[in-house]
Structure prediction request, 265 residues.
Amino acid sequence: MPPARKRTRSYDPVKIRTAVLAQFGHVRAAAAGLTPEQLALPTRLGDWSVRELAAHLTMAVESVSRNLDREEPAKPELALLDWPFATAARAGDIDDGTRRLAEAHPDLDALFAETAERLAGKLQDAPGTRVLATRTGAMLLADHLVTRTVELVVHTDDLNAAVPGLDIPHDRQALAACTRLLADALAAKAPGGSTEVRVPPYAVVQCVEGPRHTRGTPPNVVETDPLTWIRLATGRLGWQQAVQDAKVSASGERADLSAHLPLMK
Prediction:
């Protein structure tokens, strides 16, 4: 018997807009206090410095405003769950664009202020059904904003890892949306019902081919916290290391997710 069809997760558009603005605000406040020495620190993203990583975050958010300025496509081409798998092809363009942006804007405070003002203004009257011509494909604004929570949460974590003591907070709604989208992406990449992946308090998904669980305690269970899950899904942390460090609890013969991770590279 085929597995039951999974219902596509929905997101509250008002909460997502608020989350994007809030998380960008957290990053902006932290970036304003970075010293020249901190801005020059290396990050875990190749040879990007903290300055380039911060500039990239403005670019990720500016994509909303920029695409709202562009002509609207006739219809969306990219579903929300397609997005995590569509970003790798643009890695070279993203790297080049980030370096140019950081070089062209030595005043990061001004760049963050301009980006925040444009975003708030553009979102004020734009409906979630507006189609955006994003570089990964035409998407609904509501869906694109969910992807911005991933960009913001993931790179907030990158900044915190690069600058000791920075401790930029994660907006709860942004963290929840990021966690859920990446959990659903795993279920889409490894469809099935033999393994239950739990990321409390935000997500539980069934995945991996094999005997389907129907009641009681599942025979294969993976459990971890949101930031560990996000690091696994985006390649910041390896599966074996996470298990070894007790960041992940994995029980059952089908609980090894190493073949399916990372989801985003």
About this structure: Confidence is low (pLDDT under 50) at residues 1-5. The first strand starts at residue 131 and ends at 134. The radius of gyration is 19 Å.
